[in-house]
Amino acid sequence: MGNLTKKQLDLLNFIKKYISEHEEAPTLNEMAEFMGTTLAAAQFRLRTLVLKGFIIKEPNKPRSISINNKPELKSFSLPVYGTISAGDGISVFEEPDPDLIDVPSTMIKTDVPYYCLRVNGNSMIGDGIMDNDYIVVRQQNYADNGEIVVAIINGEPDEKANLKRFFNHGDQIELRPSNSELPPKFYRQEQILIRGKFSGLIRKK
Fold first, then answer.
1. Does pTM surpass 0.85?
2. What are the structural domains of the chain?
């Protein structure tokens, strides 16, 4: 169990004991009460156990948790939280009841939450990212120059979400497409919020 932190291991052992005693899994409220923390924190720790393969969770079903005694999984299930524009930007939204998509474990490297978005548009075709592909996103609010990011653009009638390469020029942020037919766009620092970094691509056949 060296792949788990002490708090993660404590939660895993609590779930195992609860299932053994009650023949069903604990609720998220019961996990939060056991940990003495918020529901959001309990959900994050549970999601980490799922990502690491120690827990199997069926979507949209209460108490749908089971223990995976062989956690060397080759893939994980991540939520698809909405659509990201590889074009001129689309209004920000998230699916209230997200679907799940299988993602290779090689795309998941840390305890930071990951999620997926469906791509709309072809501005990133130079990086092999096509319309209707799914991208794996590492949730974070920063980026290094040249990285492909999920960027929210403020200061427009609706906030817009874009998938572009990020470049910080000091007084301006450049969002650069990977399509020779499209020009880069420049924004003031305060206009751009980073919501995640591109970590992988899923193409459904």
1. no
2. 6-67 (1.10.10.10), 75-202 (2.10.109.10)
Which two three-digit tokens encode residue 81? 């939280």
Question: Residue 108 has what pLDDT?
Answer: 77
Could you give phi then psi for residue 200, rounded to 5 degrees? 175, 170
Using CA atoms, how far apart are residues 116 and 22, in angstroms rounded to an integer?
Answer: 34
The set of catalytic residues is 123, 164
Which range of 5-9, 110-114, 119-123, 175-179 scores highest in mean pLDDT? It is 175-179
Under 8 Å between Cβ of 185 and 173: no
Q: With the CA atoms of 112, 82, 197 and 2 taken in that order, what torsion angle do they form, in degrees rounded to the nearest 10?
A: 20
pLDDT digit string (tens) for 35-48?
998 888 888 888 87
